[in-house]
Amino acid sequence: MKEEIGKRIKNARESMGMTKEEFARHLGISGQYLGIIERGSSCLSVEKLKVLCDLTNLSADYILFGKDNNLIQDTKNILSEFTDEQIDVGCDALKKLALFIKTI
After folding, report:
1. Which of 59, 60, 80, 95 is most solvent-facing, going by the fewest CB within 10 Å?
2. DSSP codes joined into one string, the chain
3. Burial grade of 73 (CB within 10 A; 0-12, 13-18, 19 or more)
4. pTM surpassing 0.85?
5. CA atoms within 13 A on the CB side of 42
6. What residue ranges do the domains of the chain occupy?
7. What pLDDT score was predicted for residue 76?
8. Percent of the chain having pLDDT more than 70?
């Protein structure tokens, strides 16, 4: 499990284009310790996990378990691009689809 957490942390760091030293500085740990975490030999404290989540905009569920529960925020971001009328039309279409599926 620690290895998978370490891989997700490393992927987050690399996707941000940061070196171990830069990333570690933001977390308040040493680059050497970050390397140990990324290899899965140790893990972050709860306090440092919160800093990591704030820094990367990833959920603790994703870091710890690989589950992306940002669906609500992602949905809000997508829907913010639509007008209220467009959202209403989409909701009506989904209701009709749900009713259709129930009849199958």
Report:
1. 80
2. -HHHHHHHHHHHHHHTT--HHHHHHHHTS-HHHHHHHHTTSS---HHHHHHHHHHHT--HHHHHH----THHHHHHHHHTTS-HHHHHHHHHHHHHHHHHHHH-
3. exposed
4. no
5. 11
6. 2-65, 71-103
7. 80
8. 96
In one-letter notation, the amino acid at residue 99 is L
> Phi/psi of residue 3, each to 5°?
-65, -40
Banded model confidence at residue 36, pLDDT cuts 50, 70, 90: very high
Report CA Rg, the chain: 20
Contact 20, 13 (CB under 8 A): yes
pLDDT at residue 57 tops 80: yes
Are the CB atoms for 91 and 29 separated by under 8 Å?
no
Give the pLDDT confidence score for residue 104 in this predicted structure.
Answer: 83
Give me the CATH code for the 2-65 domain, please. Answer: 1.10.260.40
Task: Give yes or no for a contact between 67 and 61, defined as CB atoms under 8 angstroms apart.
Answer: yes
Rounded Cα gap, residues 86 and 88, in angstroms: 5
